[in-house]
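Many introductory courses stop at the sequence. We go one step further.
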Amino acid sequence: MPEIKIGYAPTRRSIFSAPDAVKYRGLTRKRLEELGVSFVDIDDINDEGLLYDENDRLKIVEKFKREKIDGLFLPHCNFGTEYECARLAKDLGVPVLLWGPLDERPDENGVRLRDTQCGLFATGKVLRRFRVPFTYMTNCRLDDPVFARGIRDFLAVCNVVKTFRHVRILQMGPRPFDFWSTMCNEGELLEKFNVQLAPVPLTELVEEVKAAKAERTEVEETIAYIHTHMEIKIKEDEVENVAALKVAMEHLVKKYHCNAGAIQCWNALQTELGIMPCAANAMLNEEGIPIVCETDIHGAITALLVEAAGMGETRSFFADWTIRHPDIENGELLQHCGPWPISIAREKAKLTYPLAFEHPGSLTAEAKHGEVTLARFDGDNGEYSLLLGNAKGVDGPTCMGTYLWVEVENIKRLEAKIVEGPYIHHCVGIHKNVVPILYEACKYIGVKPDLYDENEAEVKAYLRGE
């Protein structure tokens, strides 16, 4: 699980009860600790540990930047000081979570201590004036299930944003000539999103394979892993090449400080090594280092976003939309030559030959069924969006490669979205519903969410805590 650190800056306003605000600062802190949240507090800034003063706010900014927080939590322990919240959020530039506890019943004299909800309305407006995007967690009690869910979801949103702001992709070779659909605008990705590419020629990758074979230790360990976890249907020297390629790609990812990779998987590589890279990709995908096919840079970005949204609880998989299900009206085949992590397989993966190529090195295994999220980051003509939605695994005919038959709500609507773009036939899936997380993260990364289920009202209702 990635560790996400949030800045904990509870706030109050002077005309409401300061003792009650201090009380709720402590109660909220305790609840965060119970939930295992990593946070930086402001207890050393003033005696109350609360945000309401500009001089204190400047100290908080300095502390939170020094601590490299990934998100900002602004609990309104009474009405709150809306302009101090907005100034703090503006200076920090991280995702913001706005929340306050439900107010108690007025006392017998009609006195109210906090007016928290009213303060939330004020802060929301001022954050908008400052053009600060924020996430709102509904006005609720600390022990309400929606509080725990909202905190966990916000941490996942922060993880997506943090990941997206530090994307560096190892590009191993240019795209295959025939794949015009996977072209990308490297300069625009850098200018718009700080997405960085580290291009290396296939000759450098091949030389790294040779070096890995000469060193032997990591290659032998990888061969042992293959024999333990895969049913081998190829020659032993080919297994060695698969293992050496996996080690070589991992070395280059680390050498160029990347967090994902995209490889020109055919056909120059087969001339040099005699194998397909699918199984090598699968092993790195299993380790949480997404490696995608056909030099699909946008696909690698998608994989990083989906992995971040999943918070390490399950691995993602890179797939083609391929054909309609022969028997299920809204069914579709997700398939690729064999790069999926084996932990998502419902059977022991076979290390064998792919569907459309003569060289060995791919996996064949059906993926587990269940609920999945499918997503695709893509763009053209200067506009970028994230296609996302849900599906469920279903039974279907046996296939080659790594595959999963899925059923969606409306395949014709989804098909039209992919054809009309800016998407292509590639997507990334994960066995978890992370649609609300990715949808919410889009407001922070400057990408338009595009729900293929057209269920935006339902997603928003979930995020509101309904």
